[in-house]
Design brief:
By secondary structure, the chain is an alpha/beta fold. Helix content is about 40%, strand content about 10%. The chain binds zinc ion.
């Protein structure tokens, strides 16, 4: 048994057909973790979907209604950049339910890993960049509403700026948003996070880890969150089709170790979500996500 739960639902697939976003990766990662005997069936917990009430803690009623009824405008679908389907909407609600469950489980067990989620480009009243609703923000808001936490920190290491999350929590002193990303990349408009670490094209392991470590450690000791939401995007990888940074597998493992260990060593629980990953070879994306799960186990089992 793993020392932490893997949250997963077989309906996480967004059913995108032939698309740069390999949304079958959730199933592929699930299968890989079992096949390599990293995990057993009993390590996986299937989440219930988020309720509309949960989603409305973050999103505008009009946007939720449009997603529910399939009445998005042509422009809204273009902006979302994925085809609309009933299954896609159900999958987003499940992903949000999974991230809520991961956050809650993290508070109980120190760490939890959603084999999905990380839809950081979703804004309150519109979706974009493959993200219809923002599961990260929904989970934070739900736990705050339940009184389980007051302060949370989002550590967004996807190669793309966490624009939706930044906009949602803009001016909210209870949520610290950190985004480390390639500056010359989508989204062109980057609403201010609490801390934005803008990276130049082609940055590799050493500079990435140095800048993330400095920013993150300073933010943690200043803000002292009760929960870290780690957005563990696989797309800073050097062979990513939508990313322009140059991290290696080892660099990405170091990144995971840095984010997870630093929080846990301060007794701050960590909930992990996947976010993006568009490696030329999809197996590389699965490897990067699987490595994050491995690093999490290694850190939890580290003595002291
Ligand atoms: Zn991304």
């Amino acid at each position: 048994m793993l020392p932490y739960p893997l949250i997963y639902h077989e309906q996480y697939d967004l059913h995108l057909g032939d698309h740069v976003f390999p949304s079958k990766k959730y199933k592929w990662l699930h299968d890989r973790l079992l096949r390599t005997k990293f995990a057993e069936e009993g390590d996986f917990v299937a989440p219930p979907p988020a309720t509309d009430e949960d989603v409305l803690l973050v999103h505008a009623p009009e946007w939720v209604a449009k997603l529910r009824s399939g009445t998005l405008s042509y422009h809204e679908i273009l902006q979302l950049e994925i085809p609309y389907s009933r299954q896609m909407v159900e999958a987003f609600w499940l992903a949000a339910g999974g991230t809520i469950l991961a956050a809650r489980s993290a508070l109980e067990r120190g760490l939890a890993f959603n084999v999905g989620g990380g839809f950081h480009h979703a804004f309150p009243a519109h979706g974009e960049g493959f993200c219809a609703i923002n599961d990260i923000a929904i989970a934070v808001r739900r736990l705050q509403r339940d009184g389980a936490i007051q302060r949370a920190m989002v550590v967004d290491c996807d190669v793309h700026h966490g624009n939706g999350t930044a906009a949602i929590f803009s001016g909210d002193q209870s949520v610290f948003t950190l985004s480390i990303h390639q500056f010359n990349n989508y989204p062109s408009e980057k609403p201010l996070s609490s801390l934005d670490i803008h990276l130049a094209d082609g940055i590799g392991d050493a500079e990435y880890l140095h800048r993330l470590g400095n920013g993150y450690r300073a933010a943690l000791s200043m803000f002292q969150p009760q929960l870290v939401m780690y957005v563990a995007g696989a797309d800073p990888y050097y062979e990513d089709q939508l990313g322009g940074l140059s991290l290696t597998f080892d660099g990405l493992r170091e990144r995971d170790r840095l984010v997870i260990w630093t929080a846990l060593s301060h007794k701050i629980p960590v909930a992990i979500v996947l976010a993006g990953g568009y490696a030329l070879n999809v197996e590389d994306t699965i490897t990067i996500h699987a490595n994050t799960a491995e690093v999490a186990r290694e850190v939890l089992q580290r003595p002291g």
